[in-house]
Design brief:
Elements: E1 8-17, H1 27-32, E2 42-52, E3 57-62, H2 68-76, E4 83-88, E5 92-95, H3 108-118, H4 123-137, H5 152-164, E6 170-173, H6 182-197, E7 201-205, H7 209-215, E8 218-223, E9 226-232, H8 233-243, E10 262-270, E11 279-280, E12 286-294, E13 300-308, E14 314-323, E15 329-335, E16 343-353, E17 364-370
Parallel strand pairs: 3-7, 3-8, 5-6, 6-7, 11-17
Antiparallel strand pairs: 1-2, 1-4, 8-9, 10-12, 12-15, 13-14, 13-16, 16-17
Helix pairs in contact: 3-4, 4-5, 5-6
């Protein structure tokens, strides 16, 4: 029995995975049988039955190892089920793993053309979407650079930009959105909402309750490969947090304990031409433009800018004091040379009343990426030149 475009059907679906490596077998083992059975296969899905109507939005949540990603891979046709029925109607677009389906030696533009062809688009259809995909990704000139130089954040930008501009009947999205900076995540969620408004079916795996609550009308909770809840989003999130032993999510972003003296607004990262930019090269100029809007009556504020690397490690911090007025105050920080190497970074801004002790909270965070350069490794860009006196030779 066929399903409608955008409809998803799982009936009695099970899938297990072997956890031992297949080392082959000897002639003796073939004749008398192997010694020892080894560990039992891991049951990722256990008799899962799930129906999603066309245009419905479903959030798939659960602990690590509950079977969420396995469910999406079965739906996408990446892995077959051991038993049961799986049917998905229409064109399926997946975003399950960063860089999946990309040729690392191809440029971003070439990978757009490749992925478009893999999803059944003609060359003319890809060309018609090309400028919109590049604009959405915010990669700028890096779209013509081999993707093997991309950071995880740049991979996300390109992968989601492609997926967002395909005519999908069904969207399957895994945790990859957690990699992007806050502004790009909001942009992705807006685009998902637009696709939903056009009738696309969505299955979203995320540990972010705000993302699930924003775009999903229904929540399915998996536990040990089984469906333990299927119902409205608010009830599903509450069920899940009680399953974890807490009624309130413990991963909400930190909030300032008291009222901040100003609101940091209109925050943008810009290149040397004053254009909004989220991807830079090592050594590029960087300009941070923002606006301070007074709201607590403090005569002056202490503004701190910090750059954080992987795992939140502080790499650089600077600060200034700004006199406030009744009207918004424009403020900018300019670095003539961004001395960072390839990776994903966070720029953290804090504003507090002058003289107020430093706290652990912050006001705004914006992410940016620096493209990899094969000529150097590490975080800081300290490249210089080698020299040696005439007549000497470098060791080795």
């Amino acid at each position: 029995m066929s399903v409608a475009h955008g409809e998803i059907v799982l009936e009695g679906t099970s899938r297990s995975f072997s956890v031992r490596a297949d080392r082959g077998s000897t002639l003796k083992e073939r004749l008398i049988g192997p010694r020892g059975g080894g560990p039992e296969p891991v049951q990722a899905l256990r008799d899962v039955t799930l129906r999603v109507r066309p245009g419905e939005t479903v959030g798939l949540i659960g602990r690590n190892g509950a079977g969420k990603s396995s469910t999406l891979r079965v739906l996408a046709g990446i892995v077959p089920p051991d038993s049961g029925r799986v049917e998905v109607g229409g064109r399926v677009v997946t975003l399950l793993e960063l860089g999946a389906g990309f040729s690392r030696d191809f440029s971003g533009r070439e990978n757009i053309e490749l992925n478009g062809a893999l999803h059944g688009l003609t060359r003319a259809e890809v060309a018609e979407r090309m400028d919109r995909i590049i604009g959405f990704s915010e990669l700028g000139s890096f779209v013509d650079v081999p993707v093997k130089t991309y950071s995880a954040g740049m991979f996300l930008r390109l992968g989601f930009a492609i997926a967002a501009h395909l005519d999908a009947d069904v969207l399957l999205i895994d945790e990859v959105l957690a990699v992007g900076d806050e502004a790009f995540q909001r942009k992705c969620l807006r685009r998902i909402s637009e696709r939903i408004a056009l009738g696309s079916t969505l299955v979203l795996v995320s540990h972010d309750p705000s993302a699930i609550e924003r775009v999903c009308g229904r929540v399915v909770v998996l536990e040990a490969g089984e469906v333990v809840f299927d119902g409205p989003t608010a009830d599903g999130l509450l069920f899940y947090h009680r399953l974890l032993g807490t009624d309130v999510p413990d991963d909400l972003p930190a909030h300032r304990a008291g009222a901040a003296p100003v609101e940091i607004a209109a925050l943008e990262l810009e290149d040397e031409d004053g254009r909004r930019c989220r991807v830079f090269r090592p050594g590029d100029p960087l300009r941070v433009a923002l606006e301070l809007r007074p709201r607590a009556g403090a005569p002056a504020v202490h503004v701190e800018l910090e750059v954080r690397g992987e795992h939140g490690r502080s790499l650089f911090a600077t600060s200034t004091e700004v006199e406030l007025a009744e009207e918004p105050v424009p403020l900018a920080f300019e670095a003539p040379r961004l001395a960072l190497l390839g990776g994903d970074y966070d720029l953290v801004l804090t504003a507090r009343a002058a003289g107020e002790p430093e706290g652990a909270s912050f006001d705004r965070v914006v992410g940016f990426s620096v493209a990899s350069d094969p000529g150097a490794r590490g975080v800081a860009d300290l490249r210089g030149s080698w020299s040696a006196p005439i007549g000497t030779r470098a060791p080795g």
